[in-house]
Amino acid sequence: MNGFSLTSALLACGLCLGNIGCNGAPGKPGLQSETVRPNQVLDFPTLYKQNCAACHGEEGKLGAAISLSNPVYLAISGVDNIQRVTASGVAGTSMPAFGQQADGMLTDRQVAILAHGVVDWWGRPDVLTGSAPPSYASNSVGDPAQGQKAFTTFCARCHGADGFGTSAHGEGQIGSLVDPAYLALVSDQGLRSAIIAGFPEQNMPDWRSDLPGPGARPMTDQEITDIVAWLGTHRSPTPGQPY
C-alpha cells in the first residue's frame, strides 16, 4: 500500500470512529441517549407513582390519604373535582398543589391525565345505579346538635358515642375522629368525602350504611352535613400546642 492510500484509509477510519463516538458512545449526546423531561411524562402509571402513591397508596388504597381506588368516591367526586384538587391542592391540609399555575410541577395536561386516569383505572360507571347519592360538596349549613344525633345513630357503633374511638367487631381499636391533631390534617370536605364514600378496605361502609334491622336507611345529605359540622366543633385553633 502506498503512502497516499494508507493515509486515506487512516482518515476514513478516524472519521468513522468519530461519528460512532458522537452518536453512540456513553456520555455522548445522541439519539440513543435522549432523556425524557419531567414535563414530558404523559403516562398515567408513572405520573401516579411519582406524585400520588406516597399518600394515596401504590394501588390507590391503604395510604394516609383518601382511597382513590374507591369507585364510590370517584363517582361522587367526578373528574372535574379530582382535577381541580390535584391542580390547586387543599389549603390547610397535607394535600399540595401540583399544577404549575399554583407553583406545582405538573402541566395542565399532566394534571388532566392523572384525574382521568384514576377514574379510568378504578372507577365503575354503574356503582351508584339505583341510589340517590348526596352531593360531593355541601349545599347547606350544618347543625352541630343534629350532627351529634346523626353521629350517634350511624357512626357510634364503631367510633364511640363521643367519637373518641372504640374497638368494634373484634378488629382492634378504631381511632378518634375528634382528636384535634387529626382534625388539623383533614378539611371539612375530606370528612364529608370519607362519610359518603367510606373506606371499603377497612370495612367502613359508605353513606348507605350497614346498620342492621328493618328500619336501616342511608344517611341524608343534611345528616352528613350536620355530622361534619359537629366534628368541626372539636377543631383546635392551635392544634399541637400545649395551650
Task: Please characterize this protein's 3D structure.
The protein folds into two domains: 85 residues, Cytochrome Bc1 Complex, Chain D, domain 2, CATH 1.10.760.10; 89 residues, Cytochrome Bc1 Complex, Chain D, domain 2 (Orthogonal Bundle), CATH 1.10.760.10. The protein has a two-stranded antiparallel ribbon. The protein is mainly alpha-helical. Strand 1 and strand 2 form a beta hairpin. It has ten helices and two strands; from the N terminus they run H-H-H-H-H-H-H-E-E-H-H-H.
Oligomer class: single chain
State Rg: 27 Å
Q: Number of helical runs? A: 10
Order of adjacent strands in the largest pleated sheet: 1-2
Question: What fraction of the residues are assigned to beta strands by DSSP?
Answer: under 5%
Low-confidence stretches: 6-24
CATH class categorisation of the largest domain: Mainly Alpha
CATH superfamily of the largest domain: Cytochrome c-like domain
Task: Please name the CATH topology of the largest domain.
Answer: Cytochrome Bc1 Complex, Chain D, domain 2
Helix content: 40-55%
**Global mean pLDDT:** 86
Major beta sheet summary: 2 strands, antiparallel
List the domain count as a whole number: 2
> Outline, from the CA principal axes?
globular
SSE arrangement, N to C: HHHHHHHEEHHH
Structural class: mainly alpha
Beta strand count: 2
Keywords:
Cytochrome Bc1 Complex, Chain D, domain 2; 2 strands; 44% helix; single chain; mainly alpha; 243 residues; two-stranded antiparallel ribbon; 10 helices
Q: How would you summarize what this structure contains?
A:
By secondary structure, the chain is an all-alpha fold.
